[in-house]
Amino acid sequence: MPTTFAVFCQNTGSLDFYKRDTVPTAGSEYNGKLVSNVYTGFETATYSYQGTPWNEVISQITSVTFVDVITPTRLDYWFTKAVNLVTCDVANLDVSNVRYMKDMFHYCESLQRIDFSSWNTDRILGANSFLSGCKSLTNETIIMPDGFCSNATSIASFFSGCDGLTYISLPDGFGTSATGVGSLFSACTNLTDVQFPENFGTKADNLTYMFSGCTSLVSVELPDGLGVVATNTSGIFSGCQSLQSVQFPDNFGAESTNMSTMFFGCSSLVEIDLSNVNTGKVKNMNQMFYSCSSLTTVYASKLWDTSSVTSSDNMFGLCRNIAGDGGVVYNSNNVDITSALNAVDGAGYLTYRRYIEPMYREDMLINGVTVLNIADAVRSVTGTEDEMNPIEMSTNLADFRSNMDGAINDQSSIIAQIQKA
Question: Where does the pLDDT of residue 74 fall: very low under 50, low under 70, confident under 90, or very high at 90 and above?
Fold first, then answer.
């Protein structure tokens, strides 16, 4: 019966994996290379941090090749801290039986390219820190097929510390089953753009430090559904010193109890729109905006509910430029939740912005004219965000359509005004 084995050649720095009838011995020549070390028994083994048999030579490994097809059951820590690994051919690594591959390539800082296009990852459940610290990889040199890790429940820190990423387009399905996405891109210091697949993170209950330390990130649009069921959203953008705008999905934070340090140190942030953010269950807002030194405006809506908050130390500490729409300006002695109890009364640092129900963001057709966003259409006619009486008069889009004549005296008039706008 064939035996699975790996051969390390010190002269070339290569670690090659085989499954063959004959196992070479140290000191012999095999496949054109001098055999320095031979390793067996790993196909069904489970390893702890730096516990693989080849860890004794991990810093000497410059290339990894799976020459023959091997079928392990776990891949946790296999190449952790292979700091000089440059090339890795995993085409013959069959992961169809693998459930966990935590830290598999953690801190492989010299790795130039990795192609997972041959992998069937349907059974993989855990991939924490899978590529963390692989700072030489780029979006073009990480090849992930659609469906990659689509069933994984934890992908926390997956790309953490990947300094080579300036942007990343995640494959379809990635993150759609994940409950943990904390620190997913933390310390990706050159990251400027992320494209998320549909349904990314809709099951995630932990978003802590998701973009923490992404010092080049200027703007980000979070995908629909992300953060709606999350119970911990603390530190998501902490240390994002270039951040200027965030587009939150509807009802973000509805289940969150912790929003501490969410924008800690976002020194380029001038204004932030939280009108879609639901704070009704939040208990901890400690240092939420701490050291946002350029921040002038925090928009919030009726979803801003602070009745559950029990801790808010230095929530607005060092936000010296902030001012609410009621004329309240920064006071270093008043930097906790008492300056942001609600957005409606104009008594604190918040600026009110009306929350628009999702049903009124649908496309609709009026007399043959497509209105892409009915809330914007009505706003263009009324001239102000706070005077949307036609929307307030209806409880759903069907009512709005059927009552358009009654809500707005002359339907053709509003269409004409929209067309002229």
Answer: very high
The interaxial angle of helices 374-382 and 411-420, nearest 10 deg, is 90
Q: CA-CA distance, 212 to 241, in Å (whole number)?
A: 10
Q: What is the DSSP letter of 93?
A: B
Q: Say if residues 207 and 183 touch (Cβ distance below 8 Å).
A: no
Token couple for 98: 């693998």
How long, in residues, is the chain? Answer: 421
Judged by average pLDDT, the poorest of 111-115, 308-312, 393-397 is: 393-397
Q: Would you say 287 and 312 are in contact if contact means Cβ atoms under 8 Å apart?
A: no
pLDDT in tens, 114-171: 999 999 999 999 999 999 999 999 999 999 999 999 999 999 999 999 999 999 999 9
This prediction has a pTM of 0.87
Q: What does each C-alpha distance from 365 to 188, 223, 361, 406 come to in angstroms?
A: 43, 26, 13, 17
- How many of the other CB atoms lie within 10 Å of CB of 40? 12
Query: 3-state SS of 34-80?
Result: ECCEEEECCCCCCCCCCCCHHHHHHHHCCEEEECCCECCCECCCCCC
Amino acid at 132: S
Q: What is the pLDDT of residue 358?
A: 80
DSSP string, 258-271: B-TTTTTT-TT--E
Using the 8-state DSSP alphabet, how is residue 311 labeled? B
